[in-house]
Amino acid sequence: MKFAYPSYLFLFWLVPALIFFYLYAFRKKDKLIKAFCGETLYAELVPSVSPGRQKLKAALLLGSLSFLVVSLLQPRWGFQWEDIKRQGIDIMVAIDVSQSMLAEDIKPSRLERAKRKVYDLCRMLEGDRIGLIAFAGTSFVQCPLTLDYGAFKLFLDYLEPDLIPVPGTAIGQAIRAAINSFSRRERTSKALIIITDGEDHEESPLEAAQEAKKEGIRIFAIGVGQDGGAPIPMKDGSGGFKKDGRGEMVLSKLDEAALQKIALETGGSYVRSVTGDLDLNKIYREDIRGRMEKKELRSTRKKRWEERFQWFLFAAILLLVSEFFLRETKAVRKK
């Protein structure tokens, strides 16, 4: 036998508490009546009250309470094996951690917005495996594909620009890192979500996207940033902004055209990051879950225990009804 809610076990303390209460109440009641009318008149004044029936009514209430507590615990015994199949999609998330992602045209920063989007994505997942890639001038797989969303979030917490010392933004390398992270034996159920401002510093993102298409990977891009651009804060915390060789302030702009080409090359889609979940609803619910083929990610067997609380609840009600119809007084014969 096992219980679904063992936390209710503490309610059993009510039973001994009520037992002591009834013992005290019965004795106190007898003492008060006898003190009021005396031993001689006691039998004459209360001839019909049956102490035995009073005790039986108390026992029925205690039994009903006990069975009610057991039913709240939801006892279960006997089980059947149930096959559980989890279907979903393998999703790699590539987040740009280059210095341009520190720009604050998106509050509190582009990188923080990107991380918050992925946290929201984790809440939406419906049994999919998810992995994490960090990229700047080069790429690293921070978390391989997993169903452990808690572990995934731990890696996500540590994403900072200092994580990758190579400056720049190499989207093509991030795509190739994702290609190597997926199983080569399958040609479906593979999605790559790239979250970046789109400023690429190499010339091969489209070629990498074509390679991904051959492997059956669809790329979905989320652009983070504003059209007008924004200065890039210095990482040293001095409060200054990055400047070029001529001493002019560098403005980082969102390159939506490049991201759209990369996504459309593989049959994916592009959205700009917005406040709320409209962008994630488009990318995940409509495009990934709505249009991509799902595969079986895990098949397990689970014990399905049979619920038995009904018997104890029935016994509690039966005892309670019996207590209600049982009278404390006994029939008195008329002389």
Structural features, described:
It is a single chain. 42% of the residues lie in helices and 22% in strands. The chain has 335 residues and is α/β, with parallel strands linked by helices. The chain has 2 domains: 2-79 and 304-325, no CATH class; 90-293, Rossmann fold (3-Layer(aba) Sandwich), CATH 3.40.50. The strands form 3 sheets. Strands 5-4-3-6-7-10 form a 6-stranded mixed beta sheet, sandwiched between helices. It has a 3-stranded antiparallel beta sheet with strand order 1-2-11. It has a two-stranded antiparallel ribbon with strand order 8-9. Strand 4 (129-135) and strand 5 (139-146) form a beta hairpin. The mean pLDDT is 83.
Features of this protein?
9 helices, three-stranded antiparallel sheet, 11 strands, 2 domains, single chain, alpha/beta
